[in-house]
Amino acid sequence: MLLRPLFFAGGALSVLLGTAGIVLPLLPTVPFFILAAFCFARSSPTLERRLIESPRFGPPIRAWRERGAISRRGKRAALVAFALSVGISLAMAPWPWPLASIAAALVFGTWIWTRPE
């Protein structure tokens, strides 16, 4: 099947980005691992199982799959990242471009905050 290699590549890229997010402050980690688990479920059940059984990333992946839940700590981190992004865009981008980051922060921040914990 042609889609299987594409899902595998998407999973591998998501793991790389998630791993980079461990050390880069504004790059999210857990969402990339959730995406990797989704992709590996369609391409490599072995790698999916390794992610789900991971002591560090398994619990948030399972919480997302079972309840669409995001931890309170994850919510706070996302909202702080949104606030920093808005602040940077207000300081560096010419008007009216910061409105796009403000709108995105409001829409996605509200969505994240309303997820179960």
Automatic annotation (TrEMBL):
The chain crosses the membrane at residues 12-41, 77-93. The keyword Transmembrane helix applies. The keyword Oxidoreductase does not apply. InterPro entries: DUF454 (IPR007401). Keywords: Membrane, Transmembrane, Transmembrane helix. PANTHER family: INNER MEMBRANE PROTEIN YBAN. This is DUF454 domain-containing protein. It comes from Sphingobium lignivorans.
